[in-house]
Design a protein that fits this description.
4-stranded antiparallel β-sheet
Amino acid sequence: MKRVIIRILFSTVLIPLIFLSSGCTTLGPSFTKVSVPGNKAVVYVYRLRKNSAGGLKEYVVHANGRKVANLYNNSYIPCIVRPGLTEFKSRAEYTSSAKTYIDAGKTYYLRLDVKKGGLVGRPDLKFVDAATGEQEIAVCRLTAEK
């Protein structure tokens, strides 16, 4: 009986949800660096397609409680931030956060991976070194959605 209920639930709810969430998204231009005022820093927040474990089309990212962007596969957003302790969060089925102390004039790369979750993928935010970030973000396009 449980298997029948699970199959009905899967075929009537989850499959249509996956198809609806996998629609096309128009993204902006390819990655380009932004100039940063001397008293601030830039954090490039990006998401690669390689980890598409979740059915969600987009993941919302916040910095210190303020919405930064909706990230799609192969998308990025430059986030200009003030120096100091900054916490980035993304939430779906689980919440992921990454904190670091931001220094003025520096560039940071924050990657959003999507790991397998129960019903949807769970976000996993982590800062990566500049060499890795520059290489990975090269395939990303600017997301315009905030």
